Amino acid sequence: MGVTKNDSTMKSEADQAQRKNLEVEIQQDKNEKSNTAGKKSNGKDTGTYKERLKEITAVLHKHAITRGVSPEKLRLILTDLGPTFIKLGQIMSMRSDILPKRYCDELMKLCSDVDPMPFAEVEEVLREAFGCPWQEEFQEIQPRPLGSASIAQVHRAILKTGEEVVVKVQRKGIYEVMARDIGLMKKAVKLLPPVTIKEAVDLNLVLEELWRVTQEEMNFLTEAANMEEFSRKNKNVAFVKTPILYREYTTANVLVMEYIDGIPIDDKETLLAGGYDLDEIGSKFVDNFIKQVMDDGFFHADPHPGNIMIQGGRIVWIDMGMMGRLNDHDRELIGQAIEGVALNDIGKIQDAVLALGEFKGKPDQSRLYTDIRDLMAKYGTTDMGEIDIVDILTDLMDVMKENKIVMPHGLTMLARGLTHMEGVLADISPDINMVQIAAARLKGNLLENGNWKKQMKGTGKKLYRSMLRAVDIPALAADFLQGCMKGQTKINLDLHASDDLAWLMRRLIRNIVLGLWVMALLISSSIICTTDMTPKMFGIPALGVLGYFGALVILMYLFIKHFMKK
Fold first, then answer.
1. Do 201 and 87 share a domain, yes or no?
2. Are residue 245 and residue 100 in the same domain, yes or no?
3. Smaller CB count within 10 Å for the chain: N or C?
4. What pLDDT digit, counting tens, does each position of 508-550 carry?
5. pTM for this model (two decimals)
6. 545-564 burial by CB neighbour count: b if 16+ within 10 A, else e?
């Protein structure tokens, strides 16, 4: 049931300013705690640090980490290490660009449900966030949580003003705990033998990425901003709803939003009993996600069934802690790559990949071309409507990974989101084709939003620039030739040829040289024969005879070589 917020101005400006100051103080206190944790991790206060290190070492020893790390073993290790590492494993599952796919697939099996923290700790976190007991702001908070994860847990509550809400409360001290554990993980990486996952991926890079993403997810003010932006971008979509955010009650470690009394999108029996059409839900679900990606460049990166509810005929997106972004340039290049696959245009795909990625070193374009050609051989002449976008993105990411090309973070988030989308569709409406819905939306955008004008304008600009450059071609060619004549121009060529082509070129050059020798001998001998040069053989100069004989020998050699190759 949706609840409208009629009392958003119930707090005075002075009270709001006081809360902002309090949030700053809380953040400063958190930073001080983080610094303290950092000092401990440097070995000055090693009580808790050493104990945790012993726990991690024991788990690693239990799973015989020195014998290598398989995908299943890595999942079991993270499970035994506790909720912090489970969360890190879930984030790792998104990075298929730097982590092998088999590891990502296995880590996606990690369950985030953990033992809830005691309600007394929840009360303490709320007291620190609000500067007063929670009873001054809420009529009721149910002690039993609706859900409990590694970073936070959610409780159902009622505000003093009567609105039904959910309160997302961050686990007490989780920031310091995760900072400590990641520091220890970096030490543990050094224990890995050379022949492990370590050779396939830079684990230190993975850990740095994990810590960055985790810090963002632990800041509920970021999630609140995501909710507001998502709501603005989808306000004109009649079948989409975003929970109401109660900003005045939201801090860095507490988030308050509307309680959604809806039906999970994968609860097919309840949906059918309520008169819902599963195909319609699936179609609208995909259409809105494609809209988020293609139109907004701001999309829900974790659309699993637990984050999608159906309420009052509308799709409700919840949990905005993990969102993806794609700029206009990246979206255009992704479309170009998919189009290249459909058209079997290797060059188009290569250009898109080179423009999308960041290189760890100098790219080997010859190898990249070969890898893309092999990718095209896999898909053959697949029709655009039959293309599986998830498979294409996965294969392209594998190609980029093999060529040491790091893709944008938004693209990895998109791949994760599409994977979840496919899973939901396969469950509720398996006959829906995601590509066809995307194509229909793109076609509609082309006609309705005037994108064709943009394309025509872009084409016109390219044509104009090409004409300007064409005017300069004669002058540039003249300068080039003049430089060549003066010996001032250097040309560097990097040619790559196969063994068969190299053999053919050598044979061709050899035959040309021998042919020139035959011509030279015949011409010179004929000239000599017109003279009275002595000695003579058969009435003609002997030197001319030798020339003719030499030409004959070369011709015989060429004929014999030709027939022997046959």
1. yes
2. no
3. C
4. 787 788 778 778 878 887 887 778 788 888 778 888 788 878 8
5. 0.64
6. bebbebbeeeeeeeeeeeee
